[in-house]
Amino acid sequence: MNKLLILTVMISLFISVDMAQAGKTGNRQIKQQKRIHQGLASGELTPGEALRLEKEQQHIQKTKQEALKDGKVTPKERLRLERQQNRANRHIYRLKHNEKAK
Questions:
Q1: Threshold 0.85, pTM exceeds
Q2: What is the DSSP letter of 19?
């Protein structure tokens, strides 16, 4: 379990540092990262759920990097990123509020 937690923290640090240049979309992704970590710390998320959400955030980051390769995010690329972040937001909410077996 400690290895999973360390991996989660490492992924989030990688994303957070890289997001500093990404503007509005980056701020949103940083907020989602904080929600994931808060959920893991409070027990609302299991380590496996947190890892799955982190991987989703990593995928969004890769999409963003692809969009920024030419130095500009087009409206179509921005829409795609917003949709991915909306989906990730719903996933975070659902996993933080699901019934856990006690």
A1: no
A2: G
